[in-house]
Amino acid sequence: MGKESELKSIFLPFLSTSHIIPLVDMARLFAMNGVDVTIITTPQNATVFQKSVDLDSARGRPIRTHLVTFPAAQVGLPPGIEAFNVDTPREMTPRIYMALAILQPRFEQLFHDLRPDFIVTDMFHPWTAEAAAKLRIPRIMFHGASYLARSAAHVVEQYAPHLAAKSDTDRFVLPGLPDRLEMTRLQLPDWLRSPNQYTELMKTIKESEKKSYGSLFNSFYDLESGYYEHYKGVMGTKSWGIGPVSLWANQDASDKAARGYAKEEEGEEGWHEWLNTKEESSVLYVSFGSMNKFPYSQLVEIARALEDSGKDFIWVVRKNGEGGEGEKFLEEFEKRMKESKKGYLIWGWAPQLLILENPAIGGLVSHCGWNTVVESVNAGLPMVTWPLFAEHFFNEKLVVDVLKIGVPVGAKEWRNWNEFGSEIVKGVDIGNAIGAMMKEKSEELRKRAKTLSDAAKRAIMDGGSSHNNMKELIQELIQIKHSKAQETTTTP
Ligand code: UDP
After folding, report:
1. CATH number of 263-455
2. Cis status, amide bond into 244, omega within 30 of 0
């Protein structure tokens, strides 16, 4: 092992898979750059990334996990439910917040005991700004979203353009942004449409960001430079895009395979073998992230559209507990697809990074979750955009209107991550968008996606924007540590 790390850090992810994955990739990047890293989480949440940390540790990198017991019994949760995940029953989510409140002093004590030089914490831990101030160390906030999404939410909060729209489906312009972007009231997250508890939480988060040393995004300069500048301007804070973090932190197949809930063995007729029989850029990857469940009425529309499209596909699909006719339909559909070799269904969790980099993949049907957008840009793939919840509708604007690498399915209504919502997108609309992406518009979309993919790869190389940001940030943090040490020695 090399010399002892000059900087010691703590990373505190939120309790939800798609916030854990990129923040842990960031933690691993800091360790890759010689910073000593301790990730604090609870046992169940650690299963999402422990294999990756073990791999890095075996490579001699200064990284480890510090586990804190989740107070399940205290808040009346069954063992194993420690996060806001797809299988977390809706009525249990307030109990997870209660558990977080119980854990807060425990986390704070660890900040004190482990004596880090800085902490990096998820946006949903706003209290950590004060905790870091007490210890006189920088807190850096991790944003799970894009610069565009944060900028768009900010202008809606500031100017309320949606209130001037004539109806919920009338389009209005998001004012003051680098591009002319339009949306409808129905596409806005509920907390922006009209104030609720979450609106208050988002205000607290913004305040905590202003009190932090700066923020980190899984983004890179060429992906959304206008929004990066805009965001820094309105917030008046420091911010660093160090993405694509999945590309940078997961450099070989073992890293990619270890990510998330991937199974050890693929089984006999694995997706890999199936995909390798397909032509280049011919297969669709259909996935809606880690948090979504569709009702069977929607799954049936997707299945029909995929079958009618004539394209080969991998579809990552989840049963939703409704059972009955829908479940039977899907079983028969899977059997039919297996026989014809047109489609491959993955139940639950897919090794997304490995699949996206396979040359047979030609495009995605995606919910526009930010991590997936960055991962597909990195793979140079166009996408059919089907936003659902969180800030997906803003991300769709980036993909379709700014970067012009996507075709919208025409989703009309935002919903909560743990609700089905009332909108069912029709098979014919799904089919038309797939047709446009894979046939009519395919060449232009693919060309632009390829240019962005090249930019993504340059960003993390020596001299690239993300690489420089990382280097500069680490240097700044070393400086801060030194000045603090000097202050302490010179203070009488
Ligand atoms: N992911 C995966 N396999 C799956 C589902 C998700 O590897 O079956 C990963 C994906 O690569 C991404 C993250 O989980 O890094 C999902 O984050 P995203 O922001 O795209 O969507 P969310 O889960 O927040 O809806």
Report:
1. 3.40.50.2000
2. yes
Structure token digits, residue 192: 């922006």
Pick the atom of ligand 1 nearest to 22's CA. 15
Assess whether pLDDT exceeds 80 at residue 209.
yes
Asked about 19 being catalytic, the answer comes back as: yes
Look up residue 85 and give its two tokens: 């995940």
Q: d(Cα 86, Cα 321) in Å, to the nearest integer?
A: 12
Cα 201 from Cα 198, distance rounded (Å): 5
Tokens of 189: 């997250």
Amino acid present at 424:
I
157: tokens are: 């909060």
Please tell me the residue having the least CA distance from ligand 1 atom 18. Answer: 369
Q: Where in the chain is the domain with CATH 3.40.50.2000?
A: 3-249+456-490, 263-455
Q: Is the pTM of this model over 0.90?
A: yes
Q: How far apart are CA 432 and CA 262, in angstroms?
A: 32
Q: Regarding beta strands 312-317 and 214-217, do their DSSP bridges make them parallel or antiparallel, or are they unpaired?
A: unpaired
391 SS3 class? coil
Q: Give the model confidence (pLDDT) of 325-379 as tens digits.
A: 888 999 999 999 999 999 999 999 999 999 999 999 999 999 999 999 999 999 9
Mutate to test the pocket of ligand 1, among 16, 21, 355 (most ligand atoms within 8 A of CB): 21
Expressed in angstroms and rounded, the spacing between residue 223 Cα and the centre of ligand 1 is: 19
Segment (H or E) for 283: strand 283-287
Ligand 1 atom closest to residue 353's alpha carbon, by position in its atom list: 11
Q: What is the atom index within ligand 1 of the atom nearest the CA of 389?
A: 25
Q: What is the pLDDT of residues 131-171, one digit of tens each?
A: 999 999 999 999 999 999 999 999 999 999 999 999 999 99
- Tell me which DSSP letter residue 182 carries: E
Q: How far apart are CA 362 and CA 23, in angstroms?
A: 28
Annotated active-site residue in 36, 56, 122, 255: 122
Contacts of 124 (CB under 8 A, 6+ apart): 14, 19, 201, 205
DSSP for residue 162: G
Quick check: is 312 catalytic? no
Beta bridge mates, 41: 67
CATH code, 3-249+456-490: 3.40.50.2000
Atom 11 of ligand 1, residue of closest alpha carbon: 352
